[in-house]
Amino acid sequence: MTNQFYSDFDTSVLSVNARIRPDEYRTAFQIDRDRILYTSAFRRLQSKTQVFLSGEYDFYRTRLTHSLEVAQIGRSICTRLKAVGNPLGKDFFIDPDLVEAACLAHDIGHPPFGHAGERVLHQIMKDMGGFEGNAQTLRLLTDTIYGDKGMNPTRAFLDAILKYKTLFSEIPEALNHFVYDDQRPHLEFALGGEHLLNELEAGKQRNGFKSIECQIMDWADDTAYSLNDIVDGANAGFINLENLERWASLNNLSNEEATHVDDLCRAIRRRRLEPLMGHKVGDFINAVKLAEASPNLMSGETVRYRYNLIINPETVAESKLYKKISLDLVFRSPQLQQLDHKASRILGELFSIFTDNYIGTNKRRLRLLPMEVETAIAAAPDEKSRVRLICDLMAKMTDRFAVRTYRRLADPDFGSIVDLV
Q1: Tens of pLDDT, residues 394-415
Q2: pLDDT at position 57, please?
Q3: Nearest alpha carbon to residue 66 among 83, 47, 82
Q4: Is the pLDDT of residue 221 over 80?
Q5: Are 71 and 37 in contact (CB under 8 A)?
Q6: What percentage of the chain exceeds 70 in pLDDT?
Q7: More confidently predicted of 416 and 250
Q8: Are 79 and 288 in contact (CB under 8 A)?
Q9: CATH topology of domain 8-207
Q10: CA nearest 51: which of 178, 229, 300, 183?
Q11: pLDDT tens track for 61-100
Q12: Measured over all CA atoms, what is the biggest interatomic distance in the chain, rounded to whole angstroms?
């Protein structure tokens, strides 16, 4: 039975010249999902920071386990919305494979060391087009994920990962929430034409213009990290009864917020925090419903823009409360800030070493990078393109690989033949 929610417009692919297998048994969106799962960019997420540096302990979440959890939540939201019915039904529903693909892919462009890595790369690249984790995800999907080409995504999948649709040159003062200027053609493809992109006002309004699948992915991501960061923070000792009670006394909490904090304290006291937050995942999934969207530039072209995801305001407020607790007690702690400083220094110095060797005026070139990377840098048409290729290299590094590379290049006590393996 054909799903009437989608049309040929949604399943169109970026490159019409791509070869299609004659015996293909998968849907277009299943192909999108499978291509994400079988790429090295996805596998590298197992060694990239979510909250704590990858490898610190074996029970903290990494970008990989976070992405898997987001994918499960995204599929569950699709299942719930279909089960509720009206307007969805057996032959008219939001495709869970499409949403799963977007959830699995949403973090693949993020660099090592979490948001600290993203900040330092943007600082370095701000005069060269900027750096943004979501924009880098788009770059992988369309240009680099399979060697020197993208994965040829469908329009609906590409649009589902586009949380932001504003170009960097339109908001050059922004620290994030943009795509690169040279990604404009991909925005035009996702929206179905240059005229639609031109008609959308730049800035927050365009960034808020999301397909229903992107909205589901976004809430699934919020659900996963707002709840699970609390668990990881508690397991690491940053969130405990003493700290949480002190935090509550210093913040002007509403009655509802105070109740949620009391629940956290009770669960910590009984050593039942993880089951509590696991139960809340279900609550957050059940807090959504569909509502018909006002007519817009895309609603006449695709059903994906005819509906909005409505989330219970109390649940949104609860999610924001957990994010603030994690921000104040975990991310702003001296220990995490020290790790952020170290990460910034490692990436900053590595970037300088590579650019000095391959782009600077130094005529003596050392072979510091794999041959295929050196060849691509040499073939790049201008300095901006060469710097972007080095940025690509930095962004795809795992935490451990970045540290190991830095030590090889900058640590006098690290460099025996054993260290080089």
Answers
A1: 999 998 899 999 999 988 877 6
A2: 47
A3: 47
A4: yes
A5: no
A6: 92
A7: 250
A8: no
A9: Hypothetical protein af1432 (1.10.3210)
A10: 229
A11: 788 999 999 999 999 999 999 999 989 999 999 999 999 9
A12: 68
Which residues, including other chains, have CB under 8 Å from residue 76's CB and lie 6 or more apart?
285
- pLDDT tens digits for range 135-181: 999 999 999 888 667 899 999 999 999 999 999 998 888 889 999 99
CA proximity to 56, closest of 118, 114, 122: 114
Residue listed under structure tokens 């060697």 = 147
Place of tokens 């993880």: 274
pLDDT at 227 over 50: yes
pLDDT (mean) for 124-144: 95
Asked if residues 324 and 244 have their Cβ atoms less than 8 Å apart, the reply is no
Take residue 125 and report the two structure tokens written for it.
Answer: 């690249």
Displacement of CA 371 from its chain's centroid (Å): 29
| Site of tokens 């080089």 | 420
Buried b (16+ CB within 10 A) or exposed e, 126-151: eebbbbbbbbbbbbbbbbbbbeeebb
